[in-house]
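Why do we care about 3D structure at all? Because function follows from shape, and shape follows, mostly, from sequence. That is the central idea of this module. The next example makes it concrete: a single protein chain, its amino acid sequence, and then its structure expressed as tokens.
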Amino acid sequence: MSKSHEVQNTSSTFATLLHVSDEQLNIQDPGFYFSSNPTDIEAEIDANIAQLTQPEHAQDYICRFPARAQLLAESYSYIPQPDFSPCGELQTYLDAVSANSISLVYASENLLSPSSFMGHAFIKLSENTQDPGHAVSFFTEVAGFNLPKIMFDSLVVGKEGYFMVSPYRESLEHYKGIEGRNVYEYQLNLSEKDKQLIKLHLWELKDTKIDYYFHNQNCASITLNLIAISNPDLMAHRRDWLSPLDLIQLANQSQMIEQASITPSLNWRLRAYGASQTDAVKQSLVKQLSDGALEKSAIDEDSPVEQQFLTWEFSSALNQYLLETEEISEASYTDNARALARYDDQFESLAVDLSDFKNPLKRQKDAQWQIGTRWDQQNDPELTATWLPASHTLKDDNRNAFSESSLELMKISVSASRNALRLDNFTLYAINSYIPYDPLFGGWSGKFSVQWDRGTDFAERDNKRLFVSGGLGLSHTVNNAVQVYATVDTELSASSDKVWGAFAIDTGLFSYFRQDVKISLSANTVWNQYADSNFKHKASATLTYLGLEDTAIDLGAQYADLAELHETQFNVMFRRYY
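And the structure:
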């Protein structure tokens, strides 16, 4: 086999070890490369082979870049297999960390934390599926809530990135126990050679300087690079604004996932299992568990066995909740656990099938663009366009999310009329989270945003303002398809010549119908929104069709009333997820 042919067969995999995509370097550390132009993969391979075949450099090269050495030895017959035994620290790592099983892990989003409001992705290395093994994660430190600075540093300046190999149990406890996030594990279908290369490549990244960028050098993009070692075609997505949700969906589309499992958080278990219990049963269980004396009749043995099992699961979760909130002692918790253990044999053959419930693989992609039109009775129709590079809106399909929510980062909306092209809105950061309130466990709903807006409710009024808004309230699930909410909001606005505050009451409803139709209704009253001491009333309704792949269509109407001004607007919007 000729050298050129051998290089051609090796270059795509070698490019993943270099973190090169679209002829761009994703790692800027000069010590990571050996040629003057690392984006020329063949030239970089030659430079690496020169290091590997020179006796004075070979062992140092093997200890620093074991994955490259392994790949080159497998690709070229004249290169001997690398010997890792003289590499003390590397050999210790290889002995301590097993990679017989590699899983892609997704920790669901936490909208209250700037470092994790889009979730987190990392890989798990273990001996087998039962072994907790090790978590390998790329992250950066995010401290405080100065969102403009966090976004500027993450998008423009770059923040220092860190690779960490830690016991998987610690990561699981952090995400599930401390942050209350569901943790999904997706075991990957990889060859033994690829597993070994990934394990060796992690060592190569240990001492490499990697800057963290929120949009193209985050936990998802680095983890994508790792699993692309076995599927280099994935590197075509390295240019995208990639989220952890995007990553697991790409792995699924590439048929790399062979098995999935979920470790639910305590909050999820309480709400999911509690949904099947009546208020009377809940109150009775709380009293019995609080007294540390769970009665034998606590689980109704006359009910269907499936319902008994759900009551048992709910009781176990409730017992843990009472312990963590310090409403019961360790001794009471132990007594309750011992009483619940009486049912272990009875329910041994039962399990809750979570494979199709709140499945993140079924959620819509984490970026979208929108194009449409709006019109009213007084003005010509306008064309509108919006780009949301990261996350989702309240009009999206949230049936596979933990709750109805939105997260909008760097959203830009523009409109064009016959005479002008205008910037309507720029949203730096906006969240809405409507977690249904539970009488036992609480659950506040809320919102927060930082935006610039020109005021489009009244076309003849140009109300340009920069504002920060927030609200707090409650949400209630009427049934499986209907959810209502109400919040009390405040705004702090600034224009070119003044600063003022405003107050609002916001109410709404979400409802899902058959045939993938979602209805969103809202009504709000704002005092002093435009620094005029007037009340502004607005009501809106949107019908969204979600039945098309990666596409949604909105039909909307709204009525706004401000002092002597009245306006009815209609809009049609085509949205594309990517």
